[in-house]
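Project outcomes to date are best conveyed with an example. Our students and postdoctoral researchers have been running inverse folding experiments weekly, and each run begins with a structure described purely in tokens. The record below, which covers 235 residues, was selected by the lab manager from last quarter's runs and is presented without edits.
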């Protein structure tokens, strides 16, 4: 096996290894994202419920604080009416005492509800932190998924290219190019040979005819021709 083929085999093997490593993480990441989105939906629902309870409890606490002020105001009005002689003293003091008892109950309930609202708000804050963490994790996983998919495509393209290169080498394309080169060289050699043969076949008569056809520039007589003319008395 040539070094070229061996290099291609190594590249192909590495591409397969990358694909093997990438395919499973892609599926795992996709599943992880789906699971996290379900968890996020559940956490969002719980967060909304806890926030709703906290708001309602805080509102009830504020309402009890208003009752505290209202009962105190009523107790003061009863005592004022007693002082003005509008209400019997015993009844005024009894009702004022009842109002003050209601005020104390409302104050205790306001404190209890306020503490309960604090706990719900703290729980909502923890849930909000968890929701933010899940959102961040989903974003990270989605970014990783994009990277893994890009790596998968690159590995697949590398594998395909390497396979094509290996197939081209094994199909004998290089051998065909070598044969074509030899054929061209043979044709060139034959062309030169035919040229040389054509030059040999050109005899003296052809040269004479060529000289006569040229007309305006007659060939210079050779020494033998001049001697022959003198011998024959031809000027």
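After processing, the design step wrote out the following sequence:
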């Amino acid at each position: 096996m040539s070094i070229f083929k061996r290099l291609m085999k190594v590249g192909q093997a590495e591409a397969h290894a990358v694909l093997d490593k990438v395919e499973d993480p892609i599926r795992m990441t996709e599943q992880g994202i789906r699971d996290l989105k379900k968890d996020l939906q559940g956490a969002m629902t719980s967060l909304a419920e806890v926030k709703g309870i906290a708001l309602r409890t805080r509102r009830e606490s504020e309402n009890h604080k208003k009752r505290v002020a209202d009962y105190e105001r009523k107790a003061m009005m009863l005592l004022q009416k007693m002082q003005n002689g509008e209400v019997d003293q015993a009844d005024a003091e009894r009702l004022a005492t009842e109002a003050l008892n209601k005020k104390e109950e409302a104050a205790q309930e306001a404190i209890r509800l306020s503490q309960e609202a604090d706990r719900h708000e703290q729980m909502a804050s923890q849930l909000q932190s968890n929701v933010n963490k899940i959102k961040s994790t989903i974003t990270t996983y989605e970014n990783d998924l994009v990277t893994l998919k890009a790596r998968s495509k690159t590995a697949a393209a590398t594998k395909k290219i390497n396979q094509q290169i290996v197939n081209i080498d094994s199909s004998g394309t290089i051998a065909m190019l070598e044969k074509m080169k030899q054929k061209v060289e043979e044709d060139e050699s034959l062309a030169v040979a035919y040229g040389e043969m054509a030059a040999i076949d050109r005899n003296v008569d052809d040269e004479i005819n060529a000289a006569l056809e040229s007309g305006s520039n007659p060939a210079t007589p050779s020494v033998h021709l001049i001697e022959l003319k003198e011998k024959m008395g031809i000027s």
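The mean pLDDT is 84. Residues 89-170 form the longest helix (82 residues). The training component of this project remains on track.
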